[in-house]
């Protein structure tokens, strides 16, 4: 039927394709889109452009509350008030219009009305936003989502909590839109 050489070549091709699909993020999604006959720019193939790391500007419009736990100490500025070397939890509550700081090294807990809060030298290992309005700018691409879900890993940059949004600008090691 087939010679051993032909079977060996077919086997190697199958292994190479399998390794490509497993090891390179987004290729499997694009391949699935071709198999499903999805048009370009739709489905998961459209979101793969954001899969890698790089520069990121993400604006999130939370409906409830969200919590940040920076990986290292940060400097915080709220209007004329500044905190240096803060390490702990930051909870922005968009329903009650408050922002609460809970220091992890002391019993200090401080709550302010939700105004502009600048977070300098912000480092976050991982951050997820689920079913939230988002504006994304990454590597020359711009995308707005009314009900998006994203995962951010290895963020280093700055953050700003505003009365209606949270904006982070910096570098990421991984950014995935789900």
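-> sequence recovered:
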């Amino acid at each position: 039927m087939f010679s051993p050489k032909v079977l060996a070549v077919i086997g190697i091709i199958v292994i190479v394709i399998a390794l490509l699909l497993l090891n390179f993020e987004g290729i499997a999604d694009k391949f699935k889109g071709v198999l499903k006959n999805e048009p370009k720019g739709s489905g998961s193939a459209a979101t793969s452009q954001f899969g890698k790391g790089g520069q990121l500007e993400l604006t999130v419009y939370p409906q409830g509350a969200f919590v940040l736990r920076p990986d290292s100490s940060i400097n915080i500025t709220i209007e004329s008030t500044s905190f240096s070397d803060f390490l702990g939890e930051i909870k922005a509550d968009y329903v009650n219009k408050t922002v609460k700081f809970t220091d992890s090294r002391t019993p200090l807990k401080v709550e302010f009305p939700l105004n502009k809060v600048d977070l300098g030298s912000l480092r976050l290992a991982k951050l997820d936003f689920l079913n939230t309005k988002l504006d994304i700018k990454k590597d020359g691409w711009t995308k707005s989502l009314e009900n998006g879900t994203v995962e951010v890993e290895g963020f280093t940059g700055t953050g700003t909590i505003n009365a209606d949004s949270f904006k982070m600008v910096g570098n990421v090691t991984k950014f995935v839109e789900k």
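The longest strand covers residues 117-138.
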